[in-house]
Amino acid sequence: MTNYILSCSPKSQTRSNMGFASLAMMPAAPAGALFGAISDHYGSIYNRAYGFQMSFAAALIFMGLMVLLIPLLPAHPQPPPEPEPSSQTVKLECEPG
Fold first, then answer.
1. Whose CA is closest to 53, among 35, 68, 67?
2. Residue 42: what pLDDT?
3. Which of 53, 76, 84, 95 registers the highest number of CB atoms within 10 A of its CB?
4. How many CB atoms within 10 Å of residue 8?
5. Are 51 and 44 in contact (CB under 8 A)?
6. Hey, is 23 helix, strand or coil?
7. Is residue 88 predicted with pLDDT exceeding 60?
8. For 2-31, how does the pLDDT look when each residue is reduced to its tens digit (9 = 90+)?
9. Element housing 69 (H / E)
């Protein structure tokens, strides 16, 4: 994912886009606890094997969503063109005082 962000970002926004991507990855951190909670919940209601099956079913659903979303990404990402340096400079005029 980070290579995709680096190839799509203009040089002036690479750092902020990488920071945003790192924050966007944060929901993946509790994945182990989530799948463990699913397994424990359904395992306590039915049986332990069924709990593990439900945990794997949830993982397959997430992977299926990912497979469906990947084709929406551009095949060859290009960063937008950088603006001309002259258009970014601000000319300050000071009056002699």
1. 35
2. 93
3. 53
4. 16
5. yes
6. helix
7. no
8. 778 888 888 888 888 888 888 878 878 888
9. helix 48-69
